[in-house]
Amino acid sequence: MSGGMTNETRDWAAFDRDWYGARYGEILRRLGVDDPAAYHGFYKDHGVALRHSPNPYFDEAWYLSRYPAVARAVEDGKFCSGFDHYCRAGLATHNPHWLYNENFYRARLRAATASGATSADADGFRNGYDHYLRVGDAQFLSGSWFFDPMAYLAGAGVAQRGSTPYDQALRTAPVPGASQHRLSWYFDPEWYLQTYPDVKAALLAGEWRSALHHYQTNDNPGQYNPNPFFSEEFYSRVNHDVVDAVEDGRFRNFYEHFLIFGMHELRRPCADIDLEVYYRNAHVQHEVERGDYHDAFAHFIAHARKPGAEVSFLKDSEPLAKKIHLDMCRIRLPLLLGGEIDFSCDSPDLSVIMVVHNLFAMTLNALASLRANYNGPLQVIVVDSGSTDSIRQIERHVRGLDVVRFPANVGFLLGANAGLEKVRAAFTLYLNNDTELMPGAIGHALARLRNACTTGAVGAKLVRTNGLLQEAGSIIWRDGSVQGYLRDQSPDTPEANFVRSVDYCSGAFLMVRTAPLRQLGGFDPAYAPAYFEETDLCVRLREAGWDVVYDPAVVVLHYEYGTSSFVSGASMIARNNALFRSRHADYLRNKAFANTLLLAQARSADRRQKHVLFIEDRLPYRFLGSGFPRANDIVHALAALGHHVTLYPVFRPTEGREDMHGHFPDTVEVIWDRELPELEEFIKSRPGYYDAVWIARTHNADRVAPVLVSCAQALAGSQLVVDTEAVAAPRTHMHRVLKGEGGENTVADMLEQEFRHLFMAEKIIAVNEKEASIIRAHGFGNVSVLGHMQAPAATSPGWEERRDLLFVGAVHDPHAPNLDSLLWFAEHVLPLLDASLPPDVRFTICGYLDRRVDLSGLVAHPRVSLLGRVEDIGPVYARHRVFVAPTRFAAGIPYKLHEAAAHGLPCVASALLCEQMGWRAGQDMLCASVADPQAFADAITHLYTGQELWEHIRSNALARIARENGPDLYRETIAAILGFS
C-alpha cells in the first residue's frame, strides 16, 4: 500500500491518508498522532486491531461481520485483517463494502460490454470493483441494489467538482439529523426511520452514518425490513427452501435472497403483493425489458402499485373531458379566424360533407383538423342546418367551401343528402363537426378504398374525449338491435386493432365510394330525422355487393352527441328500429343472437371467413430469429389465404407497441396484453369461434394441453394443428455430447417425451422430410412438411461490390446454439483466416442479442463487428460477400440459410446444416466439419476469393429458392394442410 491517495486514483487497495485522518481524527488526536505522515504507520500498528478501514472504498467492520469465516481466519492469524483477506484472497468472491456487490455490477456491465464498453476482465482491472471505481462510477453505472447514482445526485443536490457519485457518497461526512434521501428503489430511509424510532435515535446520536448504513451493517439483519413492501417474517414463512441458506450465512437476510433470486423468480415479497400478476402487465414488462427499471419489484415501488390508467377513472372523467374539449375549441377559435383555412381546388381527391347546426368554434376546430390532416385537394361541403350563430358567415373565415343553407334545422340525414348533390370526387366522407382527426386518418381511409376494389365504405376507430372507445366498428344483432363494438374499452385493446369487415360504422366518420352511394340515393329519407340511417346505408351497400370495412388506422376523436339537437326519444329509436327490421329481414336472419358470448362472431360481417387461433412462444417478430421468422411467414400466408388469424403468445411480449407496427398483416388480431394463464378464459369467451388452432412448437402443445381439455366444448369442431417447427431431442443430445455430458435418457427416450402430446393433433407439421420421418417412426401418420417461404431478390449486387463475412441469427440465452457456434468460430476459425484474408475483412454478427447474455468473448476479437438487431435485413445481406453458419448442434432447418440464399449471398455452413437443408455440398453451398477448423477456414477462403466459385454457388442456390420456397407454393401447402372447404 502507498502512503497517500488522490481522488483521481480511487484505488481500493491503497491507504488513503487524507480520508483516514478525517474519518478517525478524534482517536488520532487523542493518542497524539498529529503528523499525517504517521497515519499509515498507526493504521498498521493499531488501526487494524481497531477494525479501522484503510480507505473509503473498504469497510473493515462490515466485512468481518458479513463474512464470519474471514473473521475466524483473522483471529487464527491467517490474515492480519479483513482488508488483507480481500486483497489477497477475496477480491473475486467477496464484496468490500455494503454499497457494492461484485456480481450485481458484473451483470449490469454485460450490456454495456456488448456495445463496446471496457470489460471488467480486461487487462489492468483486478476485479469488477476496480473497474467500477476507475470507469463505471464515472459512467453513472450502479454498483448495487442500494446505490443508484442518479438517485444519489438528486438527493445530494449537486455533484462535487472532480468527483463521481459513488466516490462522493463515500467521502461525504453525514450530517446528524439531516433528511434521509432515497438512494435506490430498494430501500426507503424515511419509512425505515419512522418504523424503527430506536434507529432514528441512534442515528441522531452519531452511532450510524445513515438509515441505510444501519440496515446494511447492524448485527440483527433479519429484524428489520427495508421498505413497506418487503417482510422478513412473511418471506421466511412461505419460502422454506431459503431458510437454511439464510441461517448458515449464505445470505445476510431474506431480503438479500429476494434481491438476488426471489424477485426474478417473481416470489411474493409480502402477503399482499403478487409480483407474478403484476408482471403480466404488458406496460410493466416493456419498461423492465427496455431497462427503465431493473425488475418488476422496482417498477412496483416506483409506480405505487399502479402500472397503468384505470378504465373506471376514465369513464367517470367524461363530463370533465368534454368540458376541456369545448374549452380548447374556444381557445383555438381566435387562431382560426382570418381565412387561412383554405379548401379551394378544381379536382378533389375527396368530397367531405359536414352537416352543422351552430357550434361555430367546434366546427372551425373540425375544419382545421381536416385541413391539417390531408394536404391533397379536398372539396368541403358545409350544410348549414338553420344555424343562428357565426356559422351563418363561415365563408368569411374558411375559403373554398361549398355551402348549402336551410332556414331551419333539417337534421343530419336530409342535410347530408342535400350535400351529396354537390359532391364532385370519387369518394365521399360524412364527417361530424364535433370531431378531430388523428394523424393519417384521411390518407389511410382513402388508401383502403383505392387498394380494395370491393370495399364500398370505410369507418373509423372512434375515441371519445375521455380517451375510451365509442366504437371499433358496430354490430347488428338478429333482433335488429345494434351495438358499438368495445364501447368503454381502451383504444389500445387488441380486439380493436385489426382490419375487418363489419355490419356498419358510425356516420361521425364514414367514407363511401360516391358511385354506389349515388346509386343508392344516399341515406333513406324514411329514417328522418335521425337514427339507423347509417346502419341502413351500410347494409344496403353490403346487399349490393360492397364491403364495409373498419380500419383501426383511421382514428377520430369524437365529442359524441355534440351536434344532436333533436329529441333523443325512445319512440324515435323504436320506430326506426322497426323500420330497419322490416326493410332488412333477410339480412338479419343470418345474424347472431344478442349474446356477449357471440361478440367475436358478431363483430365481423364476413361469415365465409375461417378463423385460426395461432399460438406461439412469443409474438413472432422476424428480428427474434430462432424459428420466429417462419412463424411470421405462416401468419402472413394464413392472412393472404383470407383467414382471420388471432395471434396469441404463451409469454406476454416485452417488446413495445411500436415494435408491432408493420410486422403482421393489419387483418391479424394480435393479443399482446395476455399470455398462457389467460388463454382458457380467452377461448371460453369465444365458443365455437375457431375453425382451427395452430400450435407452433411441440413444447407449446405440452403447455396448452390442459387448457385444450378444459376448453373442449368451446373448441368443438375445431381442428388442432401442431407445428413441431423443429424436433428438439437430437439437438439436445448433440449439445450434451459437445459438452461432454452424459445422461440417463437416450435420444429415443427424449423423443418419446417430446412427442407425448402429439396424439391430440389432427394435423402434425415438420419442417423437413428428415424430421417428418422421425415423427412417423413414432406412429404418427398425419404428418405434413412445411419449410420456409422465400422469394429470390429481384436484384442483388455482384461479387466485386461485396465484402466481409456475415452471420445472422438470434442469441436469446447463454445456451443458444447460435452463441455456441459464434464462440467456436471466433476462437478456432477466425484466427486461421488471418493468413488468407486481408486484415480489414470483418465478421459481422447481425440479429437479436439478449442484453443479459455475456458477449464479451466476441467483442474482444479485432475482426468482429456486433451489428445487433436491424429493421431491414436486405441491405445487410447486400453488402456482404460470404455467409457463415458454423452451427454445431441444431434442429429443423435454419431460416437464415434460405434467407441469405434468397438475397444472393452464398454460404459456408457446417455439415450438419447441409444435411438438414438437403442441399448439395459444393453446388448449392459449401460445407465443412466443425471438427476441423482449418477445413472450415479454407472453405471460407475459397468462396471469398474465388469469383467463379462464388457465382456458381449463388446461381444454384437462387434457383433452388425459386423452385422450392416460393410464396405461392407455400400458401398452397398451408391450404392443403388445413383442408378448409
From TrEMBL:
SUPFAM superfamilies reported in the protein's UniProt record: Nucleotide-diphospho-sugar transferases (SSF53448), UDP-Glycosyltransferase/glycogen phosphorylase (SSF53756)
CDD domains: GT4_PimA-like, GT_2_like_c
Record-annotated Glycosyltransferase 2-like domain positions: 351-471
Source domain of life: Bacteria
Cross-referenced PROSITE patterns: PIPLC_X_DOMAIN
InterPro entries in UniProt: Glyco_trans_2-like, Nucleotide-diphossugar_trans
Pfam families in UniProt: Glyco_trans_1_4 (PF13692), Glycos_transf_2 (PF00535)
Protein name per Swiss-Prot or TrEMBL: Glycosyltransferase
Organism annotation: Acetobacter garciniae
Organism phylogeny: Bacteria, Pseudomonadati, Pseudomonadota, Alphaproteobacteria, Acetobacterales
